[in-house]
Amino acid sequence: MKGFQATGVRNSPNDRNFGIFQPLAESVILQAMEDLWSSRERADSIEFFQGSGFGLYAAIAGMDPCDKVFLLCIVRRALRKQLGDTLPSFNNLNGKRPVRPMGKI
C-alpha cells in the first residue's frame, strides 16, 4: 500500500505533518490486525475497525480511501475464516460509526 509501511517511513505525495505520530498510528493499526487472531483481543480489534478509531489512526498514518478499503477487505477475509457468516460490517471509511443493516450481513 502506498504510504503505509511497517517501518514508519512515508512516501505518500499527500504527506501530512503528523511527524512522530505516523509510525505510532501505523503500529496501532498493525497491532489491531494482529489482535484479530487472539480470542481475548478479537472483540476489541473488531470494535477498533468498526469505530472512529480506525478512521483517526488511518488519517494520521496517511492512508487514502483506497488504502482503507484494501485493509478492511483483508480484515474481513481474515474474520471470515475465523467467524464464518457472522461478520461485522466494515463500511467505516470516513471515521463515523457504521450503520448496521437489518438482517444478515
List the helices and strands and how they pair.
Elements: H1 21-35, H2 42-50, H3 52-61, H4 65-83
Helix pairs in contact: 1-3
Give a brief outline of the structure.
The protein is mainly alpha-helical and 105 residues long.
Mean pLDDT: 75
Total number of β-strand segments?
0
Rg, alpha carbons: 14 Å
List the helices and strands in order.
Answer: HHHH
Report on the biggest sheet.
Answer: none
Task: Label the structural class.
Answer: mainly alpha
Shape: globular
Detail the poorly predicted runs.
Answer: 4-8, 93-99
The share of residues in helices is 40-55%
- Binned strand content: under 5%
Our measurement of the CA-to-CA distance between the termini, rounded to an integer number of angstroms, reads 27 Å
Number of helices: 4
Describe this structure in words.
- It contains 4 helices and no strands.
- It has a domain at about 20-85.
- The protein has helices at about 20-35, 40-50, 50-60, 65-85.
- It is globular.
- Residues about 5-10 and about 95-100 have low confidence and may be disordered.
- The protein is mainly α and about 100 residues long.
Keywords:
globular, 105 residues, mainly alpha
